[in-house]
Amino acid sequence: MSDDRPTNGRDDDRPPSGRNDDRALGERDGGNTGGRNRDDDRPESRLFTYTVPFAAALFLSLGIAGAVLGGWAIVQPAIGACSDPAIGVSTPAETAERAEVAALERIAFEDLGPAEQRAVDEAIDDPQREATVDGEFEHREAFEQGVVVTRDGVERYATVTAANDCLEVDPLALPLGVVSILVGLGAFALVAVRNYPWPFPDLRER
C-alpha cells in the first residue's frame, strides 16, 4: 500500500538528525577547535595573553619596591626617623651585680672620644641613664658588645641602647623604581589596547 502524503519535494532536503546544524554552529564558534578561536593558537596571541602581562606585573612590583625604599631613604633623615645612636650607662651598683662584667672589655674614660665622653657624662646625670652620641663614635663596636668604662676607679657598664641607623640604599633605587613602574604601566596599557574587543572609531570620518 503506497503512502499518498504530499511531500512538496522538501522532505529529502532536510539534514538528518540535525548534525549539519551542529557542524555549522561549531564552525561559527571556532571551527573544529571546540568553540575556541583559532587566533588563540597564534604566537602573537599567547605573547599578549601570558608573557607581556607577566612581565608588566614583574616590572610594576619591582618598581614599587625600589621607589618605596629609595624614597624612604631620602625622607627618613628629613623627618627625624633616624638619628645618632644612644647609649645607656649603669650605676656602679648595677654594674657590680652583672655576672658578665668580668669578661667584658674595659676602657678608661680618658681613652674615649670627645663625643663618647659627653654621652657618658650626660647618661650619668640623666634620670633614664641614657644619652645620644652626637659625633664620632670611635668605640661603637665595643659599646655594642657591652663595655665597662672606668673613671677614677669606678666602673660603669655601658652599651648601645638604640642604633637609630638610617636606611642605606643605592641612590639609583628611586629613579630606577619610577622607570620600572612606568614600563609596567605601559605594558599593561599595551595589553589592554591589544585585547580591546571593539574597534576604535575613526576620528577622520567625523
- Proportion in helices: 40-55%
* Overall average pLDDT: 79
Unreliable parts: 29-36
Total helices: the number is: 6
Please give the alpha-carbon distance between the first and last residues: 72 Å
Strand order of the largest sheet: 2-4-5-1-3
Q: Helices and strands, in N-to-C order?
A: HHEHEHEHEEH
- The strand count comes to 5
Shape: rod-shaped
- Rg: 39 Å
Helix-strand category: alpha+beta
Largest sheet composition: 5 strands, mixed
Percentage of residues in DSSP E strands: 5-15%
Describe this structure in words.
- By secondary structure, the protein is of the alpha+beta class.
- Among the domains are: 42-78 and 168-195; 89-162, no CATH class.
- 45% of the residues lie in helices and 12% in strands.
- The protein has six helices and five strands.
- It has a five-stranded mixed beta sheet with strand order 2-4-5-1-3.
- A hairpin with a 2-residue loop joins strand 4 and strand 5.
- Helix 2 runs antiparallel to helix 6.
- Mean pLDDT is 79; it is low at 29-36.
Describe what is shown at a glance.
The chain is of the alpha+beta class.
Q: How does the SSE layout of this entry go?
A:
Elements: H1 19-28, H2 43-78, E1 86-89, H3 92-97, E2 105-108, H4 114-125, E3 130-132, H5 140-145, E4 147-151, E5 154-162, H6 173-194
Parallel strand pairs: 2-4
Antiparallel strand pairs: 1-3, 1-5, 4-5
Helix pairs in contact: 2-6
